[in-house]
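Could you help me review a protein record that somebody else here produced? This is what I was given.
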Amino acid sequence: MAGSGFNVRHGSAGGNAGGPKPARTPMQRLVYWGAVLGVWGAIFLVVFFAVFARDLPDTSTLYNVDRQPSITYLDRNGALIALRGTQQAPPADLDALPDYVPAAFIAIEDRRFYHHPGFDPIGMSRAMAANLEAGRVVQGGSTLTQQLAKNLFLSPDQNVKRKVQELMLAVWLEMKFSKQEILALYLNRVYFGAGAYGIEAASQRYFDKSASKLTIGEAALLAGLLKAPSRYSPVSESERAATRATVVLNEMVDSGVITPEQRAQAVTAPVRVSRTLATQHAQYFIDWLDKQIRELVGEPTEDMVVETTLDLTLQTQAERAVRLILDRDRTKGVQQAALVALDGDGRVRAMIGGASYADSQFNRATDARRQAGSAWKPFVYLTALESGYTPETRVVDQAIRIGNWSPRNYSGNFAGEMSLATAVAQSTNTVAAGMADQIGRDNVARTARRLGITSRIGLEPAMALGAVEVSPLEMAQAYDAFANGGKRVTAYGISRIRTPEGRVIYQRAARAERPMQAISNPFLYYQNQMLRGVMTSGTGRSAAIPGRDIAGKTGTTSDYRDAWFVGYTGGFVTAVWVGKDDNSPMRGVTGGSSPAAIWHGFMQAALPRLNAPAIPNGPAMPEGWQPPSPVENLLGEIGDLFGDNPPAEGAGPLDQPLPEPRPEPRESPRREEPVLRPTQPQPERAQPQPERRQDPLFF
């Protein structure tokens, strides 16, 4: 009878042929799925490596060295100052190196170098665990062979593709070369910083010796550099480099490369870095020249040697003087300094652009523009001399008003009548401001232009007191006319550019070194006499050097934001500035303090080497001219200092900071009485003054 449901029949024992297959044993399942995964894994790996190998770099370039032309900078005596660009020395022979040199790199970079096939799974696992535990990358797992592959063929990009290609190339290198060949390639191609590629170039760059003569300490220092060449530079980061080198020495002991006794000896033996690299402040000078080289000869296409005007000995003395005072006056807020020293023809003999080139490459000697303060006043007084005044002309230090501005002296007092020479020596603000107003601030600006000031010059009343932003290079350039007999110079640092073989690419023209006469006499004579007085009885007394004919001027701006000293002797001038990059005030620092101390320290060390003559008188005096009577001058100075209007006791430094303008209602009338009241007739000019350059002025 048919039913409404399914009829299920149970077969007999002989009907198992169509039944379920017996289950696989665990071993069979393992083999089966292992085979499946192996096939798919192989397919994945083939595709994976095919994708990443598709744009692998051409390994035929293994021995090609792509390097930029190098530029070697020499000082005026042929001493090496710096080498910019790539330095590639001949490859070092691994067999010629002391055993501890390559061993130092293996100890710190890849202790299992001789036991892996190009990559180190153990090292990679250890690095991964350390990084996960720290939550950031604290350890790398790359082998020395991987680093070589990266340096030879790949970019420094950090991504999965580059890492896979690095592994592939590392295995290829291991298959193609022996371990010794890989190690030799690594040591001769790795970058050590400071433009040095390869251990031979690094040894010469940092220690002025061949790699075959490296000590254990020097080898450890170079091995420690590779982690981050700029961060562990023995030049700019000496303490950090020493700490890193100690780590390398410890690894060398643990690896059995050196004994604990050798480590102790290496730690105590001083490692002396090349004098050239140690002269880091000269790098400001090199930066200044670097732009000029490209203007003179275009982009370098071959190695060049640049013969410069710098005197490396003077540069070192300048660095010491600056460092000493920066350290001494740090508590006063003196954070930065700049120094420029020129000879009488405008050759730069020393240049310092800041407290530390490693910390800041901004060149304050050439690129910073800071208010000059009273160091600007010589341009006012030279214009006055050329307008008929003399050092003996009687002037009055009194309250004045120019428009809505009233200059004031540092002391807050007025000394009354005095000679012009005394006003210069004491840096009296009211006299300078009033004189510039009378003779014309446009004429003062033209005088400054004529002597070498190239920055913008405003014509507001405060310009007379140094409310003009200039660079130390400009100030040295302009003051050079006072030091060299009245000639206008243009500061320069390149004498000649040639190839290493001697082919001349650029030679400074001889006619460029014949400066024009910018100041005639007796005005130059008067100017130098007054600026000598600054050193003997004025604001520059602290910079005086006994037995030397020197002159100069201090400068201090409002709230002590800038302090200057610009001084000179025969054919040599040095300008010094100190301050802060953020233009915030220092604490009571005047031109007669920190800058004068730097100037004094540098010049006292430099003068014996310079063998500088007395300040030259300059061109011939006009016919019939007679020098002022020394007796009358002395009596006048005594009267100024001890007469009816002596400076108030305890008035503070004589150097006068630039006063802040005092606003006045616009309708307030200007005082009509004369600002200056000469008590003797002004003499006629003995001869025509030099032609003034009619440079466009800025308003």
In short: The longest helix spans residues 26-53. Confidence is low (pLDDT under 50) at residues 1-17, 634-654, 659-699.
